[in-house]
Design brief:
By secondary structure, the protein is of the alpha/beta class. It is built from ten helices and ten strands. α6 (167-175) links the parallel β8 (153-159) and β9 (179-183). The longest helix is centred in the first third of the chain and has 15 residues, at 80-94.
Length: 276
């Protein structure tokens, strides 16, 4: 497993995303993911499944220090008092002690960023998390937040896949020794996986289109991915991307696809995105 070292954190490059997983299915899938070899588990307050994620970790029997657990605070809870209360509730729900990484899930223009970053830093002192970071921040927001934070911001979690370039955000992360973790890394609905550029690379390597996409992502310095699935058989497939390399031609062709800037996640409260 590739490990991304960023701001003192050691983040497994392929993690298991748990968005939309609920109830016993979530418990079972988290336990199965850990059994398959995943060591990075991603959840969030908004997912409503932190308790089940924690139960899945407990059911796996793995030692807590072998896992990297991430959760995220929703954009409506970024004032000082709300952020701390939400973080305490998150850690209590997961029930596995301090999380490894606590993220601001989305920025909130109505709350001063400095207030949020100060509160985020305070969660480390309260032994609620080991590391802090952000999600869905533009490159300018990354620069601003990093300048405000006394502790390193170790991650910016953003939508990233072969149909959406993130060159400016990636450059900002590199400036500040941050990882860039891709959510929705293999897109939605199958259009991307059916693209001839990706499908033909898959045929050449004897891999699935999803494996080609994940490999393209993790071959980039400081980039990781958190694919999610409800299908147990896909767990191993998404993890088996460390036994081959793309050619320079294949990498360039997939990167060219990203210039179409096809964003899948763009809620009304999203920031004004980078143009590249």
């Amino acid at each position: 497993m590739k490990i991304i070292e960023a701001g003192g954190a050691r983040i497994p490059a392929i993690g298991f995303g748990t968005f939309t997983l609920e109830g016993q299915t979530c418990v079972d899938m988290v336990a199965k993911a850990i059994d398959a070899g995943y060591r990075h588990i991603d959840t969030a307050r908004m997912y409503g499944n932190e308790k089940e994620v924690g139960a899945g970790i407990a059911a796996s029997g793995i030692a807590r220090d072998e896992l990297f657990v991430t959760t995220k605070i929703w954009w409506t809870d970024l004032s000082e008092d709300k952020l701390m209360a939400s973080t305490r509730a998150a850690v209590e729900a997961i029930g596995q002690g301090p999380v490894d990484l606590l993220l601001i899930h989305w920025p909130n223009a109505d709350v001063p960023l400095e207030e949020t970053i100060d509160a985020l830093n305070a969660t480390i002192g309260e032994n609620l998390t080991r590391h802090i970071g952000v999600a869905n921040f533009t490159s300018a927001m990354v620069d601003e937040a990093a300048a405000m934070s006394s502790a390193p911001l170790v991650c910016n979690q953003v939508e990233y896949h072969p149909y959406l370039s993130q060159e400016n955000v990636l450059a900002a992360c590199r400036r500040h020794d941050m990882a860039m973790i891709a959510y929705s890394p293999i897109g939605k609905g199958g259009e991307m996986l059916a693209d001839p550029v990706i499908r033909e690379a898959a045929e050449r390597h004897g891999k699935s289109p999803a494996q080609i996409v994940l490999r393209w992502e993790i071959e980039q310095d400081i980039v990781g991915a958190i694919p999610r699935t409800k299908t147990p058989e896909r767990l191993q497939e998404n993890l088996d991307v460390f036994d081959f390399e793309l050619t320079e031609t294949e990498r360039a062709a997939i990167t060219e696809l990203s210039l179409r800037r096809q964003r899948l996640i763009d809620p009304s409260f999203a920031p004004t995105w980078d143009r590249a």
